[in-house]
Every structure is written in C-alpha cells, then in structure tokens.
C-alpha cells in the first residue's frame, strides 16, 4: 500500500467505510450491492499537510459513492489500477489507470462508481488555500475557470499534476508522520501541488488578445533580493509574485527582460550555489548529509540533485561534503 505509515482505516464494513470517508473528504452515501459485499475491503491512507493532502484508497468490490453536500476540498483522483466512472453533467465519463484522472469540484453533486480492483491515488486541496494561491495567478490574459465543476483530464494533459502528487507520495513516504517533516518542506510541497492544480484548471479558461505586461524593474529587484536572502528554500514563484505585488506571468516576463531567465531558473541556480556553500562548510562529524543539505534548499530528489550539482561543479556533492573547509 502507498503511504503505509499514514493509514486511516481498513474495514470490511461499508457503513464504517462511509463514516470514515466523510472524515477524510466529505459526507456522502456509499452503496455496495449485496452480491459484492463479500469482496468489499476498504482501505485508505492520507498524509495531511493542512492545506493539501495525499492519500491512497481502495474498496475491493464494485462501489458507488454519492455526495450531495459541498466539500471544503477540490480533489484529484488518479487511478493506479483498474478504472472508475464519474458523472459529468449527468453523463458517465470513464477514468482509467494509465490514461486519465478526475478533478472533483467542491460544490457540485458527485457520483462515483469504482470498479472492482480499482486502486486510486487521491490528492485533495482545500478551497481556501486554492483561492489564496490563485490570486498570484490572476492575469488579464489568463482568467481562471470556475472550479466547482468536475472534469476528466488525460494523463498527458495533467502531467504536472501527476508529478506533484508523485512528489508528495515520494517525499512524505519517507516520514512516519507529517509532524516529522520540516515545515518549510511541507509548505513547498503544498504550494507546488496547489499551483499544478491551478495551472491545469486554467488550461480550460478562455484567453484574450490583451498582451500581458512585464513586472516593473523594482518588482524584479525585490524578487531577486528575496531569493538571495533566503536562509532555506521557503518561497515558490507564486509566493514570490505575491510578495512583490505582481502576477506570476508578469514576474516571468520581467525576469526574462532583466536576466534572460525565469524566476524559477534563477531560484534553482541560487539555491544550488547555497547548497554548494553549505556542503563545503559542513562537518561530516556532526552528522550532516548531502540529502539533508539538498532538502534544505528545495532539492528533494537525491539523484536529480547529484546530477545537477555535478554538471555545474564537476564533482559529486558527496565529494564536496568530504572536502576540508576552505
């Protein structure tokens, strides 16, 4: 099972499962046909960061879920095995492992049919967090669509969202509890997942012919200063834009005009330099590790960090860590 340390329930009783699902997602009615009850075996895990949660769910037998009340979350269901159906405007749409995912709005009534053998990765984002993060993305040329309606995406189209969910599983799965995860890391993971969801939803919005404006030079200078003064990886591009009072798109255009690179590229380059500095200054006798230092600066995948580091500095990060302090 994914996220074993975060198991919330395991039961063969549909009534118990219905009550537990209400705690994790939203109240609803769970229906299992009499002939399917012997195979019913519900199991769920959820790693909850607060604004964002990532979990794993299965029911074993064919199961129907109907939600009539609104939810405080927008959800994403990514089948890992098997398939399910979700009703869109009164018509069923199939969501199949390896092919598609379903985005579940917060307000519309919901009807899900899980096929037998369907295991699902579930991402949930609180509507309050979604709304606050969306403010940084508001741009005249990129109006966001209403987020109450359910929809089905192909995996190709929802690639960024899948990657964000996978990163949550991979990173939080290393810990026994979210209380053990560094707060800065939790914050970055939540912002990343929320931004990926917003950008996926925004692809459906209409566009206008109005040309976006680049951020003024003082906003770009302020953003550069915030990145340079970070003591750990705490900001993402959306937050950076909010801090300097411009949209993400405007900040990207401003950075390209001033530095010929995006804010993200400048952020990664600066953090890599700081990780290099920390590796050279660290004392292995104090228990410092490459993984710890890399995570501090937002590099959560050790293999990718090592490859990026070697490409820039010509040595493995472990070699820098063992080097005498200059």
Helix content: 25-40%
Q: Compute the number of structural domains.
A: 2
How far the N terminus sits from the C terminus, by CA atoms, comes to 46 Å
Query: Using only CA atoms, what is the Rg?
Result: 22 Å
CATH class of the largest domain: Mainly Beta
Pfam family, one: HTH_18
Domain HTH araC/xylS-type: 221-323
InterPro entries: AraC-bd_2, AraC_XylS_family_regulators, Homeodomain-like_sf, HTH_AraC
Keywords: DNA-binding, Transcription, Transcription regulation
Describe the structure.
The protein is of the alpha+beta class and 326 residues long. The protein is built from eleven helices and twelve strands. The strands form two sheets. Strands 1-3-4-11-6-9-12 form a seven-stranded antiparallel β-sheet. A five-stranded antiparallel β-sheet has the order 2-5-10-7-8. The chain has helices spanning 14-24, 127-134, 159-172, 183-202, 217-228, 237-244, 248-259, 263-281, 290-296, 302-313, 317-322, and strands at residues 7-11, 29-31, 42-48, 52-58, 63-67, 73-81, 83-88, 91-96, 100-104, 110-114, 119-126, 151-154. Mean pLDDT is 87; it is low at 140-147 and 205-209. The longest helix is centred in the middle third of the chain and has 20 residues, at 183-202. α3 packs antiparallel against α4, α5 (217-228) packs across α6 (237-244) and α5 (217-228) runs parallel beside α8. The chain has two domains: 4-180, Jelly Rolls (Sandwich); 212-326, Homeodomain-like (Arc Repressor Mutant, subunit A, Orthogonal Bundle). β3 and β4 (52-58) form a beta hairpin.
């Amino acid at each position: 099972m994914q996220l074993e340390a975060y198991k919330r329930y395991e039961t063969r009783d549909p009534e118990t499962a219905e009550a537990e699902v209400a705690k994790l997602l939203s109240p609803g009615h769970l229906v299992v046909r009499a002939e399917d009850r012997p195979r019913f075996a519900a199991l769920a895990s959820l790693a909850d960061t607060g604004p964002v949660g990532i979990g794993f769910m299965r029911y074993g037998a064919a199961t129907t879920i109907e939600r009539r009340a609104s939810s405080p979350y927008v959800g994403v269901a990514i089948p890992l095995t098997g398939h399910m159906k979700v009703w869109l405007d009164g018509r069923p749409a199939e969501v199949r492992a390896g092919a598609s995912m379903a985005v579940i709005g917060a307000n519309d009534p919901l009807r899900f049919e899980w096929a037998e053998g369907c295991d699902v990765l579930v991402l949930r984002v609180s509507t309050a967090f979604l709304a606050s993060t969306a403010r940084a993305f508001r741009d005249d040329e990129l109006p966001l669509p209403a987020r109450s309606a359910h929809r089905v995406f192909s995996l190709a189209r929802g690639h960024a969202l899948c990657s964000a969910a996978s990163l949550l599983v991979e990173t939080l799965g290393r810990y026994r509890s979210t209380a053990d995860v560094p707060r800065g890391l939790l914050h970055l993971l939540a912002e990343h997942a929320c931004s990926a969801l917003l950008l996926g939803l925004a692809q459906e919005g209409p566009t206008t012919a109005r040309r976006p404006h680049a951020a003024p030079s003082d906003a770009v200078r302020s953003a550069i200063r915030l990145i340079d003064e970070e003591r750990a990886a705490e900001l993402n591009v959306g937050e950076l834009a909010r801090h300097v009072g411009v949209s993400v798109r405007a900040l990207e255009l401003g950075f390209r005009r001033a530095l010929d690179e995006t804010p993200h590229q400048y952020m990664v380059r600066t953090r890599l330099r700081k990780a290099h500095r920390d590796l050279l200054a660290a004392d292995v006798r104090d228990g410092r590790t490459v993984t710890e230092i890399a995570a501090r600066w937002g590099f959560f995948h050790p293999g990718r960090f090592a490859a990026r580091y070697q490409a820039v500095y010509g040595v493995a990060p472990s070699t820098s860590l063992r080097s005498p302090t200059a």
